[in-house]
Design brief:
It is built from five helices and seven strands, in the order βαβαβαβββαβα. By secondary structure, the chain is of the alpha/beta class.
Length: 154
């Protein structure tokens, strides 16, 4: 199954909203430290509502630790507002790890260099980027649709 990986997330409500997304889709959530909040932050819990018990999630000390522990050769798909294949044209795999960067900066160049697989959400030029939790939802649902995972849900 697809994973969502948040690299250095900064804003608790965004992470809580992504957790709710993961609960609703059965997708694993991975948080890469450092985090811009503490896990028991009331804003994080409020945004995730009462869905946290339904989220399969883990905190990792580094992206390298996540990648090493995976052991499956899972493909890392980096997201970027500044480049990559438009999300609606990208050929997703059921074993992809969808990597999202911090809200204030996005993924740094050294992380983007870890993978040649990059996607972007096309937007009009009047904005720099979409909100992290909105972006995660858009990319995840394109990935689920593209891999046929939504068919079982009707």
């Amino acid at each position: 199954m697809i994973h969502i990986v948040l690299y250095h997330p900064e804003i608790p409500p965004n992470t809580g909203n992504v957790a709710r997304l993961c609960a609703g889709t059965g997708v694993q959530l991975h948080l890469i430290e450092p985090l811009g909040f503490v896990i028991d932050d009331k804003h994080l819990k409020r945004a995730g509502l009462d869905y946290w018990p339904h989220v399969d999630w883990k905190v990792w000390p580094s992206l390298e630790a996540y990648l090493e522990a995976d052991g499956t050769g899972r493909r890392l798909v980096c997201t970027s507002a500044r480049g990559g294949e438009p999300v609606h044209r990208f050929a997703f795999s059921p074993e992809d790890s969808l990597l999202f960067g911090p809200e204030s900066t996005g993924l740094p160049p050294e992380v983007l260099e870890l993978s040649s697989h990059r996607v972007r959400i096309p937007t009009r030029n009047c904005i720099r980027s979409l909100n992290l939790s909105t972006s995660a939802g858009i990319v995840l649902y394109f990935a689920l649709a593209g891999t046929g995972a939504l068919e079982a849900w009707g």
